[in-house]
Every structure is written in C-alpha cells, then in structure tokens.
Design a protein that fits this description.
Layout lengths: L1 H22 L11 E3 L2 E3 L2 E10 L3 E2 L2 E10 L2 E15 L2 E14 L2 E2 L3 E10 L4 E2 L3 E14 L3 E15 L3 E4 L2 E4 L4 E2 L2 E5 L3 E4 L5 E5 L8 H25 L1 H5 L8 H27 L4 H35 L5 H16 L4 H24 L2
Parallel strand pairs: 2-4, 3-5, 5-6, 6-7, 7-8, 7-9, 8-10, 9-11, 10-11, 11-12, 12-13, 12-14, 12-15, 13-16, 14-17, 16-18
Antiparallel strand pairs: 1-2
Helix pairs in contact: 1-4, 2-6, 4-5, 4-7, 5-6, 5-7
C-alpha cells in the first residue's frame, strides 16, 4: 500500500510539473491549460468541486465534476460534464452531459449525448446535428436540426421544432399542438401515446419483448459457470506459476485482509492516476495503457477470488493437497451460488472485486523483488 501511495504521489507531481513547464514555455506554439488569449482560456480545462460555474470561454476541451454545475461559456472542443444538478447554457462543438437533473438552454453545434434522471430542453436550446438522450423523464422544447433519438420512461414534446427524424423508445409519450416536426415521428407501438398535433408523420415499430423462460435462465447460468471454468483452466495451464503464489501463507487471514486493503486503495487511486496521466501533456498513452490493464485486472479479479475460496474450502475440509483445477472449479461453483443471494450477493461481489485486484497487484509487486 505504501508503494501504491508513492507511485500516485510521483505521478501527480509529474503531471503538475509537466503542465507548469508547458504553460511557462513562451516559445511554444501549443496552447496549454491555463493560457489566456483575449480572455479565452486555451487548452484542456478541468474543474472539480461542490459548486462549479463556468463563464470563461475555452479554446479546447472541457471536463467538469461537481454537485451543482452551471455552464454559460463557449467550449471550442468536446464538453464533458458530470453533475447532480446541471444547467447547460453555453455553446459547445460536441457535448456529453451526465447528471441527475439536467436542464439544457444552450447550443450544441455538432453532436451530443445526454444522460440523466430528469432531462429538460428549454425553448432557447438548440442542437444542430444528431443528438441522443437517455433519461427517466424527458421534456423536449427548443430546436433540433437533425436526428433525435430518445430512450425514456416518459417523454413530453412541448413547443419544439425538430427538422429531422425523431425515434423514441418510451412508455408514455405526449406531443403538444405547437410543436413542429418536419420529418418522421417514430415510436414503439406499445407506448401510451397522447397526440395533440395533427401534422405528425407517424411511424411505429414493435419493441422486442424480453420473455425469458426458466429453461433459458438455467442455460445462461450454465454457460456463465462453464465460461468461468474454461477461462480459469486456460490461465492455470498458461500461467501456472502465478497460481503457485496462492500457497498456505497467502491463504492466512492477515494476508487476505491485506490484499483486500490493497484492492480497495487501488480501486480508488488507479482511476485517478489514469485520469491525471490522460490529461497530462506527455503521459496520455501511459494513462490509456494503465486504464486497459486496470480493466483486465477487474475482469480477472473474480476468478482469483473464486480460486482462493476453492483453495480455502479444500484445505479446510479435505485437508490435503488436491488438484488446482478441482480447487478452482469448486470455488467457481460455490461463489456463483453465493452471488445469487439477494443483498449478500452484492457484498460478496464487491469483496471479490477488491480482493482479486489486491491479490494481482500483490503478485506483481512480489515479482519485482
């Protein structure tokens, strides 16, 4: 855990120094974060706090995290916004907006994607190209100049101008008489549709009904278990020395708790390190590589946890050294059954995740010695 902390501090320092050097390099033609040209911030911008308000135009892309986020500036690049209560009143070339309550009264010049619980497009909002919207309750006003795709529980089209096609997947849909939709209005035929607009060109489609029989569920469970067993057997054959690390010393309580701690810290720190590297000037490729490796660790973490449980059970009950393959199969089956238990299964999945990540990192650190 100390090594992970040192690595994080080193990478963070590297990121700060790199950007500081680039920002003070007067001879460079590259616009970096923090440069101000005619009251416009140049380069990549990053903001993260409880309350974020952006009024200064940015000559580049933008990334924001906050509880209350208000955007009123011009972003000449990609605008990535994450917030609980989020109001977008600016102008962006491209926008991806994620929030609980999202209100749009600005302009998206090119394409956009909106994700939220409640999503409201005001009358002053506009989208010039394709836009996709995922929400629980969605209200569309304003102007949409090309294709609109909506996935929602309920959708209200109110005083909107849509100059392209609109395709909707929703349970409840309502269109007022003042909206102007020049092309096809397409929606799923099982929706509760209230239409007050006589000029709509309506087209319906049949939504796929997910009718899963008990036999299908059993087959899916069997395929999941079989896939896990096959992957573990391949790993045991290809990398047998890795699993040799799970000897009796590694199965002690203190080592297991240590691996859980390492995994928990890694689950928090590694994504932050990846983000720092990706937005740094010369560490972006390293950040992408680290992110890919971390995703791989997550995928393998559950197999590592299952194998450990199998070893613990066979050591305690059978009390003799048996095949690694049999231990792995026993662990996978038992853990699969435990994960099906409501609430308890979720806890087991989380502990398996952080334990597996911690064990993999611990093995890597040991191999460096």
């Amino acid at each position: 855990m100390k090594k992970l902390s040192k690595i994080f501090v080193l990478l963070f320092t590297f990121f700060v120094i790199t950007n500081a050097v680039l920002a003070t390099n007067a001879d460079s033609d590259v616009l970096t974060s923090g440069d101000i040209v005619n009251n416009v911030k140049a380069g990549f911008n990053f903001e993260a706090s409880e309350n974020v308000k952006l009024d200064e135009d940015i000559e580049g892309s933008n990334l924001v995290f906050g509880n209350n986020v208000t955007v009123n500036n011009v972003i000449k690049g990609v605008n990535l916004l994450f917030g609980n209560n989020l109001t977008y009143g600016g102008v962006s070339e491209y926008a991806a907006i994620f929030g609980n309550v999202v209100r749009i009264n600005g302009e998206i010049i090119n394409d956009g994607a909106i994700f939220g619980n409640m999503v409201v497009f005001d009358k002053t909002s506009s989208s010039n190209r394709d836009i996709i919207i995922f929400g629980n309750n969605v209200t569309l006003s304003g102007t949409f100049n090309r294709t609109v795709r909506v996935y929602a529980s309920s959708l209200e089209v109110k005083d909107a101008t849509i100059n392209g096609n609109i395709k909707i997947t929703a349970d409840d849909i309502e269109v007022d008489s003042d909206s102007s939709i020049l092309s096809t209005f397409e929606y799923n035929d099982d929706a509760d549709f209230k239409n007050n607009n006589k000029d709509l060109i309506i087209k319906t489609y049949e939504r796929e009904k997910n009718e899963i029989e008990t036999s299908d569920i059993v087959v899916n469970y069997f395929i999941t278990i079989a896939s896990s067993i096959l992957l573990l057997l391949v790993l045991l054959i290809a990398f047998p020395k890795i699993f040799d690390n799970f000897d009796n010393k590694c199965l002690k309580n203190d080592v297991i708790i240590k691996n859980i701690g390492i995994g928990l810290v890694s689950l928090i720190l590694i994504p932050i390190v990846c983000l720092i590297l990706i937005i740094s000037s010369i560490g972006s490729y390293l950040g992408i590589l680290l992110a890919i490796l971390f995703v791989l660790f997550i995928m393998l973490s559950f197999l590592v946890a299952d194998y450990t449980v199998g070893r613990l059970i066979t050591n305690k009950l059978i009390k003799k050294d048996i095949s690694k393959y049999l231990s792995g199969v026993i662990g996978i089956i038992i853990m699969f059954i435990l994960k099906l238990i409501p609430f308890i299964g979720g806890i087991i999945i989380f502990i398996s995740l952080i334990y597996g990540i911690g064990s993999i990192i611990n093995i890597i650190l040991k191999s460096r010695k």
